[in-house]
Amino acid sequence: METSNTKMAITTVMESKMKIIKGETLEKQMKCVDVILNRFSRRLRKTASGIVTPFPISGYTRTLSSEPILRYMFPAPGKVLSGVMHIEEMPKNGVDLYAVLHRDEVSNTRSLYTRKKLTIVHPKIEVVTGDRLSLSIVTKGGDQAVGIRISLLWEPRIPDAVVKKFLISELDRQQEEEIEVLSKEEV
Q1: Hey, which of 115, 146, 158, 167 would disulfide with 89, CB 3.0 to 4.6 Å?
Q2: Mean pLDDT over the full length of the chain
Q3: Residue 11: its pLDDT value, please?
Q4: Domains in the chain: ranges and CATH
């Protein structure tokens, strides 16, 4: 059986809990309740999902030299998803594109011949931390290639635990800022 002291204690606790719901109008209070419920429901989940976008790598040269047009070292494991090459002035006989992937003391070379100004490839090459990529172009028939752009999309593989911690803390911070903005609008 409840006593009046117990009712009073429950009412006091409820009143102190209700202070976290901010807003002068019913609409603003409902927005605040929605934010709080979303935060609590996220904390009940065991996992969080995140999006890791592919990372662009690119290089440009006006004219070719003996040096590679692009050099890159991968700071994390992942996969090279796609590549694009554009040559403003393509030699009549085309070009050979050489991709050399260095891992420790081993090198793996792939080549591609093209006569197209715009070439798109999807190599799906797996890389590990420390792999080094070099891209070179050799023209055919002695003509010069001019205005060469190369771009790759690399998708890093990041440990799931790092992504979860980052996402939950960032989402909580953004929601707290949203509540602050709502409460400032009332003043």
Answers
A1: 146
A2: 81
A3: 46
A4: 4-49+160-186 (no CATH), 55-156 (2.60.120.510)
